[in-house]
Design goal:
Elements lengths: L1 H28 L4 H18 L12 H4 L3 H11 L5 H13 L13 H36 L4 H15 L2 H12 L23 H39 L2 H8 L4 H19 L1 H19 L5 H11 L2 H29 L11
């Protein structure tokens, strides 16, 4: 198994390299880069100063001469953002810096990317870890019970609730929670923004924990709703498929109790399919779902920062977060594969290729 892990870890390097190169080429080819935006801001400020009316904002190189900007100033802006070098030199420089875990400095925030990520990641981790933990703690037992009581009234009404949850997007559910429980139109039980209160530092240790969890209730609930429905149905179908197999009938014929049969034999085989979905579930919660939830609840996390960086063409932050997201996703998939051995020790990784 150690050889398998080693091969998978080595494969992360070319995978990261390929993803970074492809995205670098795509992003660099997109119009409206940091140089164009800086020039547009200067031209806009000049137009307002002359005409007082906030004139036309130019974004392309074709309008620079008509605006009368000094070519030396344009070259200085290019040098400031590193665009005085050819694309291939900038790519090689970025890859060399990344090999030393140097992600550069944000164009517009004036801070190292590593510092920004370190500041934002606690919020994203809080949302993702709690949402994933709660989703699995609820969905797996519920899915097992639905499989055991398939076709009963319990199965029918829980399926109805699951369908409603699956059909409702996380952001829409977040808005509904705000309207219902955050002072929107009805109750005012929970805060609507931030991860902690303004007086967090003055609270006791127990009060800090309570305040932190109090702020997490609504955003985590919004993240759980979509994954909860999908995972519950997946668990139920996986257990239903295993319950109908011959070995279950044989185990019951030998006198094993339903509990022993379910958790001693069926669980090991049925959970393999559920475990296979863990990496994708984590990636969805951390990266796909966190952006909208962080924006709606005004949480300062990596998802929101990466979106703002993409809009403003803050390339160091864009590629720094891309590197982090990709590396995290690849490691999570490896951990998901290794979790198979916890459920079924018969899986032999030494016989597998990477």
């Amino acid at each position: 198994m150690l050889r398998y892990i080693g091969r998978r870890l080595l494969l992360i390097i070319p995978t990261l390299l390929c993803i970074l190169v492809v995205n670098f080429v795509i992003v660099q080819a997109a119009p409206g880069g940091p140089v164009e935006q800086a020039i547009a801001r200067l031209q806009g400020a000049g137009s307002q100063g002359i005409g007082g009316g906030g004139g036309e904002r130019a974004g392309g190189s074709g309008s620079r001469s008509s605006r009368g900007l000094d070519p030396a100033l344009i070259e200085e802006i290019k040098h400031h953002y590193g665009f005085d070098k050819p694309m291939h030199e900038r790519l090689l420089l970025m890859l060399d810096n990344y090999a030393h875990l140097d992600f550069g400095t944000s164009f517009f925030r004036g801070a190292p990317v590593t510092t920004l990520i370190a500041q934002k990641i606690p919020t994203t981790l809080s949302l993702g870890l709690w949402a994933t933990l709660i989703t699995y703690l609820i969905s797996i037992p519920l899915g097992i019970r639905k499989a055991v009581h398939h076709g009963t009234r319990f199965d029918v009404w829980t399926s109805t609730a699951i369908i409603v949850g699956y059909a409702m997007p996380a952001f829409l559910f977040a808005i509904l929670l705000i309207v219902m429980f955050a002072g929107g139109s009805y109750l005012d039980w929970f805060p609507v923004q931030g991860l902690v209160s303004e007086n967090f530092d003055q609270l006791s240790p127990l009060g800090k924990v309570g305040d932190y969890l109090w702020h997490l209730v609504l955003p985590v609930s919004a993240l759980v709703i979509g994954g909860f429905a999908t995972l519950t149905i997946l668990t139920k179908n996986s257990f239903l498929n295993e319950i109908s197999r011959q070995y279950v009938t044989t185990a019951k014929a030998k006198g094993l109790t339903e509990h022993r049969t379910l958790y001693g034999h069926v669980f090991r085989n049925a959970m393999l399919l559920v475990l296979a979905g863990i990496p994708q579930a984590l990636i969805d919660v951390f990266f796909a779902g966190s952006l909208l939830i962080e924006t709606i609840f005004n949480l300062d996390g990596i998802g929101r920062m990466s979106y703002d960086a993409a809009v403003s063409r803050d390339y160091p932050v864009v590629f720094g977060t891309l590197f982090l997201f990709t590396l995290f996703g690849l490691l999570i998939k490896l951990v998901g594969d290794l979790c198979y051995t916890l459920v079924d020790p018969r899986i032999d990784f030494s016989a597998r290729t990477a």
